[in-house]
Design brief:
heterodimer, A: mainly alpha, 18 helices, 1% strand, B: mainly alpha, two-stranded antiparallel ribbon, 73% helix, 3% strand
């Protein structure tokens, strides 16, 4: 496959073709449902901005995974790099302010990324083992450091830090005055649409804007520059690249440094924007969810973004009322029912069963229990990841040399 | 390949890793402001105390079971990070079932163990099926399943459902298992040894036997050495992957039993968690060999136990987690380097033999 034909699939997002209509339809149905069953915070302004705040760290992990995997390395150390980012980001932000916090968090991620590069690209150690061990190292290191720093200061403990300074937020000027009346009017679909729009453009952290800007930047560097072409070449055919003078090690080091930096930034985002302190276990598997977004997104930054929004939305459910999650469950049940019906009409009995049974279960739960308790909501993003990976389209095309160590023939 | 030199090389890896870990430990201690030599010898002296050693073995039993569970998956490069969710869900279900029936002792214990085995088996089989049927990466699916298991347990364990608030504390537990479902400790002069040490020995021997003396074990080893050759030989890779994953989960299901049958007799919020990484590390250390994994589990438990002394020296005992990570990292690096040296030596050896035959 040539570089030119690969780039076309990346920059023309296929999901724009029809799904926009479907999303609008789904929005309308959910909006009507939330009105009918009294779930006020489904499309509230706060709910949408929470979705944004929960999506950004997953997106950063996803972009980090994308950089690494495009160079041929599965970065199972992302979670560890994120953990390092949370701790060092929080520590430096408390000591010197949020600017140094950002630098320290990104720097910690880069350091772990380079360590992974040494292990996988230079020493040829199994990518999965080295990545997972880095997670262990990051967890141990941060815990040790917390015990010597946060544990001794007021408001801190061995597992939590004192409050971390926040970043500034910005709004589109004048938009609030313009749309707030529509938001409060109580018109079924219109008010919810206004709230969604307001949630997206008011009180947005500057860091969120920077994160959003990283998506086109990643696309541009990886698909429109010589550097990006080389990184992708190393991920597709390291031997061929090497024979042309593109040294695979060098580009894997670079890609893993960027990958770690993005994950580290994701960590800082978690402590500074998504919450306001460092807490042990805060990353909660988001590094691995980021890896999942890359598979879901077929190694393409735009679809990775879409995946992050889906997972971020389910992650943000923990901030919603239990009844709202119940309404969402009903919406999902309806969607499954529609799919099951279509499979039935297409005489695909197994397909109808596959979607019909969960649809019945979800609608029955909603009918009988109405709410989804918070303990069950806590794993919504993880269950969604599982389901999405299990049911998503299977025409995937990962980088050809993904996961394979590169060694020259003469060096075993 | 000359045998003696090969053996020396094989030993070189763990020794090098141990020395590196020791150096890192000394460095971290020095940075933390403690005297490295004195602190380490204090820790060693405390660790080698007979009472400590019994405690270490008790601690190592679940580590060993988790290590064997991980080792089973490793043969097919299946990273079962779901050990964590598998054993906690298994122990939870076993605690509920065990507390709700009264049976003669052997039956009662057998039922509890069977429930744990089946739940671990089933929970891991989900990941196995997703991998084989839908190509879902096992690391990702098992981590997600861990989160689902955590949430399910939290929901079911709440006092409105299956849990009980323990008197005088914030701990919520399942009802206690009646005494017919307990396994007595083995008394030793240095303290009580958890009776489930027998289970660990059984699982270890069973693992060795299946792997080395049965067709299934042969298929697993063949597939691990060369997937292509094994497939050509008629071994069905997907079926084997699901079986292996489920077997790993079944063994993982037993990880909670030493605690459940031999110590607490109930499942509570304070039930030990996070043993998946311990199991993976211990299996890496022991190179998937039943005896090696036992040594790895012992080393792991020994490190954690002897680190208790560090608090007295004014150093946080969390340093031990750093050490464990360094040990895993340096041992995989050392094994990789040794593998490369051996491959080179083997090539030279073959070349010489061929030349000798030609002359």
């Amino acid at each position: 496959m040539t570089a030119a034909s690969m780039s076309t699939s990346a920059w023309r997002p296929a999901w724009l073709d029809g799904p926009v209509v479907r999303v609008a339809l789904g929005f309308a149905v959910l909006s009507l449902l939330s009105g009918a069953f009294d779930a006020p915070d489904l499309f509230s302004r706060g709910g949408i901005s929470a979705t944004l705040r929960f999506s950004a760290p997953i997106l950063l992990a996803g972009l980090g995974a994308l950089w690494a995997e495009r160079s041929g390395v599965i970065n199972l150390g992302l979670e560890g790099m994120m953990i390092a980012g949370t701790w060092f980001g929080a520590w430096a932000a408390i000591e010197w302010g949020i600017g140094p916090g950002l630098v320290a968090g990104i720097g910690a991620g880069v350091a772990f990324g380079l360590l992974l590069a040494v292990l996988t690209a230079t020493l040829g150690v199994d990518q999965a083992i080295s990545g997972l061990s880095l997670g262990l190292l990051a967890a141990g290191l941060t815990r040790f450091l917390s015990s010597t720093t946060f544990a001794g200061v007021p408001g801190g403990s061995i597992t939590t830090s004192p409050p971390v300074p926040d970043l500034a937020t910005v709004s589109v000027p004048g938009i609030d005055a313009l749309l707030a009346p529509a938001e409060r009017a109580g018109v079924p679909i219109l008010s919810d649409a206004a709230a969604v729009f307001l949630g997206l453009v008011t009180d947005v952290s500057v860091l969120t804007i920077a994160v959003v800007a990283l998506v086109p930047l990643t696309w541009y560097v990886l698909w429109r520059t010589r550097l990006g072409l080389r990184i992708r070449a190393v991920g597709e055919a390291p031997e061929a690249a090497d024979s042309l003078g593109v040294r695979p090690w060098r580009y894997r080091y670079l890609a893993l440094a960027v990958s770690g930096g993005l994950a580290g930034l994701g960590g800082v985002y978690l402590v500074a924007v998504a919450s306001s302190l460092y807490r042990e276990g805060q990353t909660a598997g988001r590094g691995f969810i980021g890896l999942a977004t890359v598979i879901f997104g077929n190694w393409n930054p735009w679809s990775v973004t879409l995946g992050s929004l889906i997972f971020g939305f389910t992650d943000a459910l923990r901030t919603r009322q239990e009844v709202t999650v119940g309404v969402l469950l009903a919406g999902l049940g309806l969607l499954f029912a529609v799919v099951a019906l279509r499979r039935l009409l297409a005489r695909s009995w197994s397909g109808a069963l596959l979607f019909g049974v969960p649809a019945t279960a979800m609608l029955a739960w909603f009918w009988l229990v109405r709410v989804v308790p918070s303990e069950l909501v806590s794993f919504a993003p993880h269950l969604t990841t599982l389901l999405v990976l299990a049911f998503a389209r299977q025409r995937l095309r990962p980088p050809a040399a993904l996961g394979e160590p590169f060694r020259r023939d003469d060096s075993t | 390949m000359p045998g003696l030199r090969g053996a020396a090389l094989l030993l070189a890896a763990p020794v090098a890793a141990a020395l590196l870990a020791l150096a890192v430990a000394a460095a971290v201690l020095a940075v933390a402001g403690a005297d490295p030599v004195a602190t380490l010898s204090d820790a060693l002296a405390y660790g080698l105390h007979p009472e400590t050693l019994v405690a270490v073995v008790n601690k190592a039993i679940p580590y060993y079971l988790a290590g064997i569970a991980a080792a089973v998956g490793f043969h097919l490069r299946l990273f079962n990070i779901g050990i964590d969710g598998q054993y906690r869900l298994a122990a939870f279900a076993a605690a509920i079932v065990g507390a709700s029936v009264a049976l003669p002792a052997p039956l009662h214990i057998g039922l509890i163990a069977a429930v744990a085995l089946v739940v671990g088996w089933g929970w891991a089989a989900i990941a196995g099926l997703l991998y084989v049927r839908r190509g879902v990466n096992v690391v990702i699916s098992t981590i997600m399943l861990n989160a689902v298991a955590t949430g399910l347990i939290a929901w079911l364990l709440s006092p409105e459902r299956l849990g009980r608030l323990a008197p005088g504390s914030n701990n919520v537990t399942t009802p206690a298992i009646p005494e017919s479902g307990w396994i007595a400790a083995i008394p030793t002069p240095a303290g009580d040894l958890n009776g489930l040490v027998v289970l660990a020995v059984l699982v270890g021997s069973g693992y060795w036997f299946v792997l080395n003396r049965t067709t299934l074990g042969f298929e697993v080893r063949a597939m691990g050495l060369s997937e292509r050759a094994a497939t050509v030989a008629g071994i069905r890779a997907p079926r084997l992957a699901v079986l292996t994953m489920a077997a790993s989960g079944a063994i993982a299901g037993l990880v909670g039993l030493p605690q459940l049958l031999g110590a607490s007799h109930r499942f509570g919020l304070d039930f030990p968690a996070g043993l998946a990484f311990t199991g993976l590390s211990v299996a890496i250390l022991g190179r998937n060999h039943p005896v090696g994994v036992a040594i790895g589990a012992f080393v792991w438990a020994f490190l954690e136990r002897s680190a208790q002394v560090l608090d007295l020296a004014g150093v946080s005992k969390e340093i031990v987690t750093i050490l464990q990570a360094v040990i895993v990292l340096s041992i995989v690096v050392a094994y990789e380097l040794v593998r490369r040296v051996r491959a080179r030596q083997e090539r030279r050896y073959v070349a010489q033999a061929v030349e000798g035959a030609a002359a």
